Amino acid sequence: MNRLLLEKDGPEPELSTPEAFISRSEHSQIEARLDRFVMEARDLQLPIPPLRGAFTKPLQPVFVSPASPLPSVSLQTNHCPIICLTASSTLSSSSHSSSTYIQGAADDSESWSHGLTPSLFWQYKETLLAASEDELPNLIHCLLNGPTTAALAQAPAPPILIRPTQSIYIAPLSSISTTPIEDWDAVIICAPQNPFPAPPEPSPTSPTKSPQPKILHLPCPQGKLGSRALRTQLCRIHPFIDPFLRNPLYWSQPPKILCTCPTGTDLSVGAALFILCQYADEEGKLSWASCGDDTVVDKALVRRRLAWITTSVPEANPSRETLQALNV
User: Fold this and answer.
1) Tens digit of pLDDT for each residue in 231-270?
2) Longest dimension (CA), the chain
3) What is the pLDDT of residue 51?
4) 247, 267, 290, 301: which sits with the fewest CB atoms below 10 Å from its CB?
5) pTM (predicted TM-score)
6) H or E segment to which residue 301 belongs
7) Phi, psi of 279 (to 5 degrees)
8) CB-based contact 244:204 (threshold 8 Å)
9) Are 91 and 65 in contact (CB under 8 A)?
10) Smallest Cα–Cα separation from 270: which of 222, 319, 219, 315?
11) DSSP readout, 7-33?
12) Residue 102 phi/psi, 5° resolution?
């Protein structure tokens, strides 16, 4: 991040790793890959220049494990501290250090968090920290099912525009209630069932927009089976999207296309990613002319378009199987 965000003359910022966890040999191997990491990040073509104004000091990681004391961190330094936590324990001796690895502690929160979310933690921080470890599961259950939390959980999030496009939105299926279905020109539903009655299909050559959107239902069960089903369903998006992009009515005012699934973070991301890879240019403008037999959808293109989605929707978390549905 320092090499990517900070433009300064002189030597590149040095890599900092915790000696208790990372050996000097592993440190050297990571350091040898930094140039490639930076190059791959630049290839994503993220909006880096606006971010540079927010970073006036280099980021400095501070590593904390269960065995280490909480560090004393001051913001009045020549760097910006980033606290990096690990649930794994460290066993040190005079000859070497080793770690007791806790599988999934970093990225598999659903297996140990009991549904606790960052926002819920900060809302009830004092209560949670005062509880014993044995009390936590029941306490989290009570907080999750409390009237305030339940009401917030039931409130559907509004659809989010994937920038830099002006057309593609992603949302969980429940959020359609926040916007009248008639407000959308096209809706792609990746779910086991279509919750809407089949509407009369609008004519792409109509001189005016149809008040009733066109709905494409891609039958996809939950989980890995849904991702596998999505692979076979994506081909149906071409004949669905093409008429909108060929219609001169939408050349001056891009169509509003909603991709949705039960969570709004997995299958709908795969559908939106497919559209972006097939129809969007580097400025996010959709065109049927961008899609052809010579369209090359490789890993580099998928990474760039996926970066648009994750930047716009940080909660987006497509599974490996969903990404593989794009055949890359």
Assistant:
1) 999 999 999 998 888 888 777 788 899 999 998 999 999 9
2) 80
3) 76
4) 290
5) 0.70
6) helix 299-312
7) -120, -15
8) yes
9) no
10) 319
11) --SSSPPPP---TTTS-HHHHHHHHHH
12) -105, 105
